[in-house]
Every structure is written in structure tokens, then in C-alpha cells.
Amino acid sequence: MNDVSQSTVILKPASARQAFDFDVTIVGAGPVGLALAGWLARRSVTRELKIALIDAREPEDSIADPRAIAVSQGSRMILEPLRWPADATAIQRIHVSQRGHFGRTLIDHSEHGLPALGYVLRYGSIVHGLAEAVHASPVHWFRSTSASTPVQEDDGVTLPIETAGVTRRLRTRILVNAEGGLFGDQKSGKRSAHGADDADNGKDTDADAIADKNARSTKPTTGARDYGQTALVGTVTVSAPQPHVAWERFTSQGPIALLPMGGVRGADYALVWCCAPDEAARRSQLSDDEFLRELGAAFGDRMGRFTQIRGRASFPLGLNAVDTLVNGHIVAIGNAAQTLHPVAGQGLNLGLRDAHALADALSAEGPTPVALATFAQRRALDRRMTIGATDTLARLFTVDSTPLAIMRGLALTALEFVPPVKTALARQMMFGQRR
């Protein structure tokens, strides 16, 4: 994991300044970082910029990553000019219901005049497609390279990087932190996107210790919530598939999401099962057959039996959103800016909208603090709406109690019988708030 801090600014006299190596340096070569690099390299206004991409992982590791991710129709529309994976599976209907309680709603692509509501694809597929687009551009890609705490100066940023044991310093006008893992880092005591370390309770970093008397702290605050849940994920096969239908099923054992992934007869689904950490730990120790029996008992028989599971893993669930996206010449996007509960599948979509809006701002204003200020202003409403809606859904739909089950039932029924409300919610999840 790269360590990209935004906590230190050192002012240097003009005589001490060096030439810039790059105009824009992007740390993190996941889908969000790659998409930003691709958009900047593709546009006529920004293609002449010197762009660097810092990738800590081995390229083969990212492309081989089998994890399933969901992207909205809106995300497909902005990604398609770069590269769209051929193996994406369309979601044409979303079925939302409660096990053992009233309330159900269906969201269908035909209601919105769209070919699909969203798509499910492998993480490796989207990375591979976007990487090919970046390879065909003049972006300078530093592979298997780690970034250390940057030093922000009044005219740009100096970023120490290390490749194969060799350390060098890059000077860049704008530094983009697109490295993921904000909530997971917080839980494990690693450094967050803005340089605050839970293990040291926000005390000075090493860079602060060497800063001179002109250094000043600019550590922003963050909004955080630990939902006290763990997600169990994997790919399951069912005996009676319903192709292109995604399921969100709220049960006494925790919410279960099943996302269509194609396969033989369309029988493969990406599983996200949210439950209490102790239950997750217990289920992680079960054999595959025992796990599938418990999953079937919780979900029901709407798709027959669960016959196979592979790629089992787990991770903690929480909300962590930085209040300040921009700090001088450094900007955070994607999971470096916010991590969300997966209940609405909005994390990657929000990050891609971050990257697209940043590309727009840099195209209009160049690699300047003015562009970053414009970006932050334009992203405020969409971030507030999406983070707020996801947090509300996570708190309302992930707690097992009879009063809340009744409230959930009323909410689902209202969505079904008040079409304008359902349409507004669906369009927010597909396209966000555009400005």
C-alpha cells in the first residue's frame, strides 16, 4: 500500500525550486486511477500534459484478480470511450425483498429506457481493459513502485518513490491520491488517505518531524462509522438461475446480495453476505457444503439450490469519508476519498464520477489549484447525496429488529407504489448528481 499523506506543507523560496517532472501524478492504478489517466491522455486539451501513474502492485496481480465488481449504466457510459470489457454481465432487473416480512420492490431497465441498470464484471477485466487504453497513451507508468509520504510545497509536490530498491523524488504540479482501502486501513491502524494514522492517534508523521519552522499541518477531518459487520464474498452457482436479475435479500442473518455473473446457463452469481463479525468468523471456518446450506437457509429457494462456491473471502464494513477532497496541490478520489457499505453497490461508481469530474476540471483549468477547487465544489452534492443514501440504507436495512423490519417493508412498498420516488432513487444510484 502506498503512503500518500496530505498533512505537510513546506514553503520553499523560488531559488530552491526545481523543474517539474510531471504535471499530474496519479498514485493508484485501480479502475479509478486508470480511468483518470486514460481520460486525461485522451482529451485534446490535456493530452499534452506530462502524466505519471504510480502502481504498487505487480501488473499481473491486478489483471488476474477474480473479484466481482458492479458498475452502473452511468459508469459504463463514461468508461466506454476508453475500453469496455466484453465479459460484463448486464443487470436488467433488481429484486429487493425481505425474508419473512412484507415489502418488495422491482426495478427494471425498461422502466428507464436503458439497456441495463448496471453490469457485473471481474476486477481484473476492467483493469485489463483500462490498462490497454493507458498503454496506448503517453502516460508514464511506474510499475511495482511504492510511494512514500509526499512533501507539499507552495508550487507543487515532491513525491519519493521506490522501484526495485532504487529511490527517486518526483516533482509534480498536482498529486492525485487514487489508492484504495480507506476504511480497511483505518481498522488495521494503517495510514488513511489524508495522513492520519489511527495507531498514533493523529500525532505528527515522520515528514512532520523533519519539516522546518515554515511547515504547517493541514490534516482534514473525516466522517467515519463502523457498522459492526463483515462481508462474506465469493462466487456461487445456483440450480435454477434467473439470468440478468440481481437480488438484494434482507434476512435475519444479514443482507444478502447476489449479482449475475453469467457462466453456464447464467448460473454464476457474485455473493455479498453481510453479518456480525463473530458470525462471519464462524462461517469462514465452515466447509463449502456447510456454508452453502446456511446460505440457502437464509436466502430461500428462489433460485433453487446453491450448488458451489469459490473464492471465499471476507472484509470489514464501514463508512469513512474525508470532508476535504483537496489540500493545496493534492486531491483524493475514489476509495482514497470515501469507502462505503456495499448495500447499494455505489463505491466504485462514486469513485469513477470523482475521476471523470477531475478530468473535466483539469481540462478546463489546467493542473492548477483553481482546477482542484472547481472539482471539489462540483463533487460536493453528489458525494453528500450518495454517501448519505448509502449510510441510511446500511443502517436501516442491516439491523434485525421487528420495528425496523416494518419500516423497511413500508419503504419497499412505497417505492413500488410511488413510481417517481423509485425513479429518483434509481437514477441517483445509476448516474449520481450531475453538475
UniProtKB/TrEMBL annotation:
<protein>
    <submittedName>
        <fullName>2-octaprenyl-6-methoxyphenol hydroxylase</fullName>
    </submittedName>
</protein>
<dbReference type="InterPro" id="IPR051205">
    <property type="entry name" value="UbiH/COQ6_monooxygenase"/>
</dbReference>
<dbReference type="InterPro" id="IPR002938">
    <property type="entry name" value="FAD-bd"/>
</dbReference>
<feature type="compositionally biased region" description="Basic and acidic residues">
    <location>
        <begin position="194"/>
        <end position="215"/>
    </location>
</feature>
<feature type="domain" description="FAD-binding">
    <location>
        <begin position="22"/>
        <end position="364"/>
    </location>
</feature>
<dbReference type="InterPro" id="IPR036188">
    <property type="entry name" value="FAD/NAD-bd_sf"/>
</dbReference>
<dbReference type="InterPro" id="IPR018168">
    <property type="entry name" value="Ubi_Hdrlase_CS"/>
</dbReference>
<dbReference type="GO" id="GO:0008681">
    <property type="term" value="F:2-octaprenyl-6-methoxyphenol hydroxylase activity"/>
</dbReference>
<dbReference type="Pfam" id="PF01494">
    <property type="entry name" value="FAD_binding_3"/>
</dbReference>
<feature type="region of interest" description="Disordered">
    <location>
        <begin position="185"/>
        <end position="226"/>
    </location>
</feature>
<dbReference type="GO" id="GO:0071949">
    <property type="term" value="F:FAD binding"/>
</dbReference>
